[in-house]
Amino acid sequence: MSIVQQLREEVYDIAMRKLVLETELKTMNFHISVLKKELDKRMAPQF
């Protein structure tokens, strides 16, 4: 396998990993916002 081909594969693998991590981060941010809304709702004064 040539060096160029190996580098292409490594760049592809890194790009795919980046996509996975970005997706996981968006999911975590969504869950955090849901939890924050729930916490705000519970902390609001009950009249």
Short characterization:
With 47 residues, the chain is an all-alpha fold.
Structure, explained:
The protein is mainly alpha-helical and 47 residues long. The chain has one helix and no strands. The protein has one helix at residues 3-43.
Descriptive tags:
47 residues; mainly alpha; 0% strand; rod-shaped
- Count helical runs: 1
Structural class comes to: mainly alpha
One letter per element, helices H and strands E, the order comes to H
How much is the radius of gyration in Å? 21 Å
The main β sheet shows up as: none
**Dominant shape:** rod-shaped
Instruction: Indicate the percent of residues in helices.
Output: over 70%
* Mean pLDDT across residues: 96
Q: Low-confidence runs (pLDDT<50, min 5 residues)?
A: none
The total beta strand count reads 0
Distance between the termini: 71 Å
Strand fraction = under 5%
